[in-house]
Amino acid sequence: MGCAQFKEKHKDLIHLLSNRSASLQEVVGDSGCNELKMEHVSVLVKGWTWIPDNLDNLYFCRCGMSCLWTKSSVLADKPDALLFETTTPPLQRSSGDPLRVYMDLEAGRRRSGREDIFISYHAKDDVQSTYAGALFHNGRNYHISSYKNNDTLVYWSSSRCVPQRNQLAKSLLRLMPHHSFGKCLNNVGGLDMALSFYPECTNDASTPKWWDHLHCAMSHYKFVLAIENTVTESYVTEKLFYALDSGAVPIYFGAPNVLDFVPPHSIIDGTKFSSMEELASYVKALANDPVAYAEYHAWRRCGVLGNYAKVRAASLDTLACRLCEAVSRRGGRNART
Question: Coil, strand or helix: which one is 241?
Answer without folding.
Answer: helix
